[in-house]
Amino acid sequence: MSREPSRSSEYAVDGVAAGLGGFGIATFAATGLTLFGLAGGEPIPIVALGSAMVDLTPLWLKNLAVGVFGTNDKAALWVAMAIVIVALLAGIGSLARTRHTPALLTLGALGLVTVGAVLSRPGAVTADAVPTLIGVVCAVWWLDSRLRERSRTPTDGSGPSRRDALVLAGGAVGLGAISALWGRRVPGDGPAGIAEVTLPAPASTVTLAADADLGVPGAVPWQVSSGEFYRIDTALIVPRIDPASWRLRVYGEVEQEIELTWAQLLAKPMIERWVTLACVSNEIGGDLVGNALWLGWPVRELLAMARPRSGADMVLSRSEDGWTAGTPLSALTDDRNALLAVGMNRAPLPPQHGFPVRLVVPGLYGYVSATKWVTELKVTRFAVDMGYWTPRGWSALGPVKTASRIDVPRSGREVRAGLVPVAGVAWAMHRGITAVQVSVDGGPWRDARLAGQPTIDAWRQWVYDWDATPGSHTITVRAQDGAGEWQTADVARSDPDGATGHHTVTVRVA
Ligand SMILES: Nc1nc2c(c(=O)[nH]1)N[C@H]1C(S)=C(S)[C@@H](COP(=O)(O)O)O[C@H]1N2
Ligand SMILES: [Mo]
User: Fold this and answer.
1) Ligand 1, closest atom to CA 290?
2) Which-ligand-closest: CA of 234?
3) pLDDT recorded at residue 159
4) How does pLDDT run across 149-175, given as a tens digit for each residue?
């Protein structure tokens, strides 16, 4: 009995198997490269491709992705990439059925694009390209030999089996995945050294201000735990830095270049500060904002040692993975206590929040100040350098705009008639909040009651006791900052320098 002739799907599977197999082999080789200390940037091709995609994503697409997927935007990128890659490889395989050489050339070309992505990574060295090149050669060679085999055997189905292809590709991918995970393995599950870190006691501590939290059920707590804290960054793989090999280099327009080690940093007098971080991408009413207790050494003192030259007006901070932020030099040297932070909520920084060291600057959006995994401070000028997001459509300067948010009742919820606490937070970091007002159904603004404000660098809770009557109601909030400015009602999108407008919720009262 003759079996089915080779159908186009068999060719598509060959294409996918060749490509995925190539990725697997390259990943295995890349792990070797890293373990032997020969890698400079990111030699794992799939990670390099993803990171290159992140860097190339236009502003509108980034906003769309964050809008739709929120902080799951990274998972969404992985899934989208997997779909596109498999579809491309299947297409190449199908093409190979009739056009052998063009298919191989297309596969090779895709491989070269991947090599390009690897070489585009910050810190990349020529050696980083080698694993991917090996993967590309293997993929092209294997697809070519499959095609030859198929053309030698009659089309009665006795040709090479789909199973063999999948087993081979699966094996290569498994090898790559296991080696990559093993390559990142560390005892405990933080980066090397995180378990051994004991933070120094602060030279000055803050009180855990009890009156800052009104404790309204359902409202976001004044102090956000590190596990609940929003996470935003371009890193597809959280950088793992061994504090023993961490260095902070201060250079550029300075009289004295400095290289600071972890031990030297920990020996400095540390201070504790409440600081609320906010993301410029946060929409009105959004949750990309959080308040934590940070421990660190004022950057001001480090910069004083380096002695910036006159004319310098910006510090370009760079992270281990090449991301940069451009911060006004004045915000790092004035009395606001911008920190080189090592602790978050009385523990070492979690890996996702910048272990071992990050910047925390009160009053500025994260994208121009809060560099995680920081390794370099370049003293420079706005006329000369730009942070990561500036050429991508975001403003060079990012002072936080005054904002307020209603946490309870949530929009769309039903509540009982009677006294209903309407509560939330308001923030205008480093200016402070002096008043919050609530308007029901467009009526007059009424003062909300404010929680304590232990520092103007953190958000402030508020509550308004609303006498809710049956029906549908809209509730709007606005805040006034320490300079006496009321938050604007003008609606603006988050790019280029932060959203504005009042947060409104609609609730049904039964
Ligand atoms: N290395 C690095 N640091 C970074 C970023 C980044 O992409 N890479 N994103 C910044 C942005 S846009 C914000 S809002 C804050 C968020 O800090 P968090 O993730 O600890 O909340 O980190 C900042 N620091
Ligand atoms: Mo951000």
Assistant:
1) 21
2) 1
3) 73
4) 988 876 666 678 889 899 999 999 999
Domain span including residue 33: 4-183
Residues 110 and 148 in one domain: yes
Measured in degrees and rounded to the nearest 5, phi and psi for residue 109 equal: -65, -45
User: Any residues with Cβ below 6 Å from ligand 1, and which?
Assistant: 229-235, 277, 279, 319, 323, 353, 366-367, 370-373
What would the DSSP string read from start to end of 85-127? Answer: HHHHHHHHHHHHHH-HHHHHHHHHHHHHHHHHHHHTSTT--GG
Distance 296 CA to ligand 1 centre (A): 17
Alpha helices, DSSP H, located in 226-272: 262-266
Instruction: Decide if 40 is inside a domain.
Output: yes
Closest ligand 1 atom, residue 365 Cα: 14
Residues 280 and 155 in one domain: no
How is residue 191 annotated by DSSP?
S
pLDDT digits (tens, 9 = 90+) for 169-206: 999 999 999 998 888 764 444 566 788 889 999 988 88
Residue ranges of the alpha helices (H) in 120-223?
Answer: 129-152, 162-183
Cα(372) to ligand 1 centroid in Å equals 6
Are residues 293 and 177 part of one domain? no
In the predicted model, what is the mean pLDDT of the chain?
93
In a domain, 491, yes or no: yes
Encode pLDDT of 405-419 as tens digits. 999 999 999 999 999
Q: Residue of the nearest CA to atom 19 in ligand 1?
A: 231
- Which of 151, 183, 215 delimits the end of a domain? 183
pLDDT digits (tens, 9 = 90+) for 27-86: 999 999 988 889 999 999 999 999 999 999 888 888 888 888 877 888 899 999 999 999
The preferred substitution site among 59, 345, 349, 372 for testing ligand 1, maximizing ligand atoms within 8 Å of CB, is: 372
Per DSSP, what are the bridge partners of residue 72? none
How far apart are the C-alpha atoms of 456 and 199, rounded to whole Å? 26
Nearest C-alpha neighbor of 397 from the set 335, 322, 487, 326: 326
